[in-house]
Design goal:
heterodimer; A: alpha+beta; Beta-lactamase; five-stranded antiparallel sheet; 21 helices; 20 strands; elongated; B: mainly alpha; 2 domains; three-stranded antiparallel sheet; 19 helices; 3 strands; about 5% strand
Chain lengths: ~625, ~475
């Protein structure tokens, strides 16, 4: 029997071998591999994020435009629910008892073993008032709790397009920025979007220990690693809330934009885009239907026309062509051209309207003579041996006004507009097969030109400044500090300062002198300089355009108004702009007849499509 | 008189083993206390703690140990047959009347307490096997002997399997160590180990690779034994040539034979050649090698079938999980994943008593019973876990020594049975908590929570100690 006694040794060796393997494996997972320690921390630590209050938004005078308000979500912990007063809860929440029981059973069936300890969302967003009522009878609803949540409030309900709104972060943003998680909010358009980083603040975190049921046991490391939330920065807009409100009232029932800029700073005083929307729609979870209607509205209220729509500038562009002519020396302010109701050359004819003749450069702006600018434009282009060079010169001057590129304001989604290049004409007409006459439409701001209302206001501000502009912007300060330093650099045009005076004079004549196109814009006691435009529109009625600034010397405000399908510039745009100026400079509007005329003007038919007048 | 004599003999008991036994039970108590620790009820002896009950089980285990030592040692030898049969009947009763807990029908309710008869079955099986093997004239090489020995192991194995308690069933297979000590041919034991290895390999590696591996192994063994190196290399070259010829050669005829089939066909062609060669040269080993080769390849082939059709879904998953083939850390792989996290997070020195956040937070299911080792690993770290493993190894080696110093063959083989059963529990239980053994619900001896297993292991151990003491009588 003892012949196999040595096998004890083999068995012992085998036991030892297996125990060594176990010890080796223990050494690997306990000492070598750090993976399990990391996962263990995730297992037991619950990170409770502390959400900062979003920054408030004020207008230039300190009026609150966007605030925060507290609402309450009703949550339920399925494990803690016992019989409760369904009728009372139904009354407090304004939901039918059947719906309450249905929601509750839905939550209960979803909550498995572990989730039953977790609060689940039961009813979203009840107001502070409703919460106060409910609070008195909490004891009737075991297992139900209220969670405070901060949402936006809009005391003035203005500038929806400009301020923007906040909504749940999309998957792209969640992937790109760890700040956002499923269900967190972020600015979607406007200031809320451009200044998102400043407004959102910094999140804090409280670290708790938890067990497998996700029940918080205690604070981790006695809260030493917890961080407090830093509230979002306060943003002061350049907007004048009262002027903005007034602008929105003037533009009601019209499609278009108002942009008003303070020329000496580039600060945007008012930026109206109509049709607009009530920002409150985006904070109330119970108004989803209205919100969806807004999003699918064919009039595109969410579309900020002031920076996202490009139009032909029309006759307001004559100011620029006049300035280029003076700079290039192809005309002086005294240069006369006669006009017999149009400009004809060969087969081409550009019509004009009846006015006195001949006119000099200043008067040409006063009466908005098309013929004059056909002459002037051809002189600019044909000054050099070939139209290519002339066109390049012209283009360089135009570009210096910010046309054809983004002004780089802090308004998101700004369009660059259209400023044609020689290459485009080479394609259209064949290389070197075009001349000044081929592109004569540019003389009167038609043809291959596209500018946004912001560009137009910027032109007015540039003329008001006599040759330079500051990048238009809507934010004055972020958390008490100045925003982007690029907003404080004067951008000079290629036109000498001295050439601006005759232009300003001509624009003044347009408002004040007999035969001027914008006499409706005259304001007692204010020397307003303006230029009308009637932009041809192949789709329907002409667009009504007006740019202006006032006072003529030391201007305080520059305005551009664009009214889609509004007809002649003097019809809608000019009175609207002048009312804005009057309101801003004199604080009151004396011309009530004009105000009534503009406010009651309705260019939108009931079916929501702009009418042809 | 007998009492007094016993009393004296008790002092001669192996106190090293008793000390380890007490230490392990104390560790068990601490671990159960910490795994059920609740800040709201921090007292040790509280109704909300399993540790209170376990303390009771430990106390009773001590009483049982003394009782086992008092009972005449001849009792176990004479009544082990009856005990074995009684336990088998109890097993059948469990199958019929038992309670189903966690999918296993292995609990028998006796009024206030429930017991797991299979725990005591292990003791009976160890005794019975020892008795058969130590019987006069028993030879494991004889057909009759082998059949009887295997039947003793297979009966409780099958019965436990019917109770859906695979883990406990597999424990009985560990008794092959007793047969090995009794003279089982080494190659049979190695073949068994090889089969297990093959099973695991065939799940992990392509069949083609395994076939090539077996082929090379067989040829290698052949060359080592017969020293016919030339013939071996010629065989290998021919097999390779035929395989490649089949695989590529028939392509112009637009017949495609997969690589595995080509390989098998090549071997089928070569085997008769090898057999004729062996007969010619009177090399009898080659027939064993050929048989081994055929068996291995058929097993490889059938493993997939067994795995997919015989094993149950949860068993497949556990094996897959252990082999790292696939895992689902949120679903069925949760236990092992959480267990590894708990142990891994313990680090070198552990988090200290009651410092284990994973175990205190109840992240590991069954952590006071089958996964109790997590608490050891998390709170006492690598050093603590190694000390526990070391204690077990010490116990096992000591048991082997005790077994070997027995004069009676019965006691000796019983000792090996004890070592085998304890070893299987320790290796598989700890192995599963660290992901190197499939999850089968078997307890960690003396540490896991539970009365049945603690008492059964205590009886198992102290019967051996009693035999050890009895040799002085």
């Amino acid at each position: 029997m003892n012949e196999f006694a040595n096998r004890r040794l083999y068995i012992a060796i085998f036991f030892t071998l297996v125990c060594t393997i176990i010890a080796g494996r223990l050494f690997y997972i306990q000492v070598v591999d750090g993976y399990y320690k990391r996962v263990a921390d995730q297992n037991v630590m619950r990170y409770e994020l502390q959400y900062p209050a979003r920054g408030l938004i004020y207008d230039r005078h300190g009026t609150l435009l966007v605030g925060n308000q507290t609402v309450y979500d009703i949550v339920v912990v399925p494990r803690e629910v016992s019989s409760f007063d369904t009728a009372a809860l139904s009354q407090a929440l304004g939901v039918s008892p059947e719906q309450i029981l249905l929601t509750l059973s839905g939550i209960k069936s979803k909550a498995k073993k572990t989730a039953a300890y977790q609060p689940a969302l039961f009813h979203r967003q009840i107001s502070m008032e409703a919460f106060a009522l409910l609070q008195e009878k909490w004891f009737k609803f075991p297992g139900f709790y209220a969670q405070a949540r901060s949402i936006r409030s809009y005391p003035r309900r203005v500038a929806g397009n400009l301020i923007g709104y906040i909504g749940e972060a999309d998957t792209g943003s969640i992937a790109a920025d760890p700040f956002y998680t499923q269900g967190s909010y972020m600015g979607k358009i406007g200031v809320e979007y451009s200044y998102e980083k400043a407004l959102r603040g910094k999140r804090g975190v409280n670290i708790y220990m938890r067990d497998v049921y996700n029940r918080v046991k205690n604070s981790y490391a006695e809260g030493k690693l917890d961080t407090a939330a830093v509230p979002g920065k306060r943003i002061v807009c350049t907007i004048d809330a009262e002027l903005q409100e007034y602008g929105e009232r003037l533009m009601q029932n019209k499609v278009g934009s108002i942009v008003a800029i303070e020329p000496s700073t580039g600060e945007i005083l008012t930026l109206v885009s109509t049709p607009n929307f009530d920002p409150e729609l985006f904070i109330d979870v119970h108004r989803v239907a209205e919100r969806n209607a807004l999003i699918s509205d064919p009039m595109k209220p969410l579309f900020n026309r002031a920076v996202m729509a490009q139009y032909p500038p029309g006759s307001i562009f004559k100011c620029i062509n006049a300035l280029i002519a003076l700079q290039e020396g192809v005309a002086t302010e005294k240069t006369p051209h006669s006009c017999a109701g149009g400009y004809a050359f060969g087969k081409r004819f550009v019509g004009c309207h009846g006015h006195f003749s001949p006119v000099n450069l200043t008067q040409s702006l006063q009466v908005s003579c098309n013929t004059y600018y056909c002459h002037v434009f051809r002189s600019i282009i044909d000054k050099h041996n070939n139209p290519q060079t002339g066109f390049a010169t012209w283009r360089r001057h135009v570009e210096s006004f910010g046309i054809g590129r983004r002004l780089n304001s802090d308004i998101p989604n700004e369009l660059r507009g259209i400023l044609p290049t020689a290459a485009i004409y080479d394609r259209m007409h064949g290389a070197n097969r075009w001349k000044s006459l081929s592109i004569i439409s540019l003389a009167i701001g038609q043809g291959e030109l596209g500018v946004t209302p912001l560009h137009m206001a910027n032109i007015a501000a540039t003329i008001a400044n006599r040759g330079f502009y500051y990048t238009p912007h809507i934010v004055k300060s972020v958390g008490g500090e100045k925003p982007d330093s690029s907003f404080f650099v004067p951008r000079f045009t290629t036109i000498d300062r001295r050439h601006f005076e005759p232009i300003a004079q001509g624009m003044s004549y347009a408002v004040t002198q007999p035969g001027g196109t914008a006499r409706i814009a005259q304001i007692a006691g204010v020397e307003l300089c303006g230029k009308t435009g009637t932009a041809q529109n192949p789709h329907g009625e002409d667009h009504s355009v007006f740019i202006c600034f006032a006072p003529k010397d030391n201007p305080k405000i520059a305005v551009a108004v664009y009214v889609e399908n509004g007809g002649a510039g003097a019809k809608w745009a000019a009175p609207t702009a002048s009312l804005i100026v009057e309101k801003y400079l004199t604080k009151t509007v004396a011309r009530t007849w004009c105000e009534n005329y503009v406010v009651s003007g309705n260019l939108i038919q009931q079916n929501g499509v702009p009418s042809k007048q | 008189m007998a009492y007094r004599r016993n009393n004296k003999l008790l002092l001669k008991a192996d106190w090293g083993v008793i000390l380890i036994w007490l230490t392990l039970m104390a560790i068990g108590l601490l671990c159960i206390y910490t795994s059920g620790f609740n800040e709201e009820y921090p007292r040790f002896f509280d109704a909300h703690n399993q540790s209170r009950l376990q303390a009771l089980w430990v106390g009773m285990a001590c009483v049982i140990a003394i009782l086992v030592m008092i009972i005449e040692s001849q009792f176990y030898r004479f009544f082990c047959g009856a005990l074995y049969i009684a336990m088998l009947l109890l097993g059948v009763a469990t199958l019929v009347f038992g309670q189903e807990i966690n999918g296993s029908k292995s609990w028998l309710s006796l009024g206030v307490v429930s017991i797991q008869p299979v725990e005591f079955m292990k003791v009976a099986a160890a005794l019975m096997l020892a008795k058969i093997v130590s019987a006069h004239g028993f030879r494991i090489q004889n057909f009759g002997g082998a059949t009887r020995a295997i039947a003793i192991i297979l009966a409780p194995f099958a019965l436990t399997l019917l109770q859906h308690d695979t883990g406990s069933a597999l424990v009985f297979t560990s008794l092959i160590i007793v047969l090995y000590r009794a003279g089982l041919k080494t190659w049979i034991l190695l073949s068994c180990l090889f089969l297990i290895l093959l099973f695991i390999l065939s799940l992990l590696v392509e069949q083609v690779a395994i076939t090539i591996f077996i082929s090379l192994l067989c040829t290698g063994v052949f060359m080592a034994i017969s020293r016919q190196h030339k013939a071996g290399f010629i065989n290998m070259a021919l097999v390779a040539a035929v395989t490649l010829a089949l695989y590529f050669g028939l392509r112009p005829l637009d017949i495609r034979i997969p690589l595995f089939e080509s390989l098998i066909l090549a071997h089928a062609v070569m085997l008769p050649v090898a057999a004729i060669y062996a007969w010619w040269h009177r090399l009898k080993h080659i027939f064993f090698i050929i048989g081994f080769f055929v068996a291995s390849v058929s097993i490889t082939y059938s493993v997939d079938y067994v795995f997919d059709n015989v094993l149950k879904e949860h068993q497949r998953r556990r094996i897959n999980d252990m082999l790292g083939i696939e895992s689902d850390v949120k679903g069925w792989g949760y236990n092992v994943h959480q267990s590894k996290i708990a142990i891994g997070s313990g680090g070198l020195t552990g988090k200290g008593f009651l410092g284990g956040m994973q175990t205190k937070g109840n992240f590991v299911p069954e952590q006071s019973t089958d996964f109790i080792f997590c608490t050891v690993g998390e709170e006492w770290g690598f050093w603590g876990a190694t000390v526990v493993v070391g204690l077990y190894l010490l116990l096992l080696v000591r048991i082997l020594n005790i077994a070997e110093r027995q004069k009676s063959a019965f006691a000796k083989f019983y000792g090996y049975g004890v070592a085998a059963i304890l070893f299987f529990h320790i290796a598989v239980n700890i192995g599963m908590t660290i992901g190197i053994a499939p999850v089968v619900g078997i307890p960690l001896p003396f540490i896991s929570y539970g009365g049945s297993s603690l008492w059964a292991f205590t009886i198992l151990l102290f019967v051996l100690l009693k035999f050890d003491v009895a040799k002085y009588e």
